[in-house]
Amino acid sequence: TDAPAPAPSLAPGIEVLSPKVRVDIEAKLPVGAAIIVDGDPSQGFSGVLDIGEAHSFEGERTIAVHLDSGQSVKVVVNGHDVGTPGTPGADYDHIFTENDFRGKKG
Description:
- The protein has strands at 21-27, 31-37, 40-49, 54-59, 62-67, 73-77, 80-83, 92-97.
- It is mainly β and 106 residues long.
- The strands form two sheets. It has a four-stranded antiparallel beta sheet, with no helix packed on it. A four-stranded antiparallel beta sheet has the order 3-2-5-8, with no helix packed on it.
- A hairpin with a 2-residue loop joins strand 6 and strand 7 (80-83).
């Protein structure tokens, strides 16, 4: 009889990405911001970001980002640097999910 194949294992040092969503922000200019994690404002941030102020957020499904002015905050989503999104002087709103920037090319 054939023995069952052993279960595959990961080689040491290989990082497995969690299915969660992570957003890191760093203010390049002072800006009003609101971050909502999984629909719960108490898990995020609301206020004015000062230059150089940085925060990291992790959620199960979504992280909603609102900035009073685009091009004011460096944003990294699930390890992917998306730069300073938006248009200067205009509101920037985006909802990031656990699937954003995770191996899908588009």
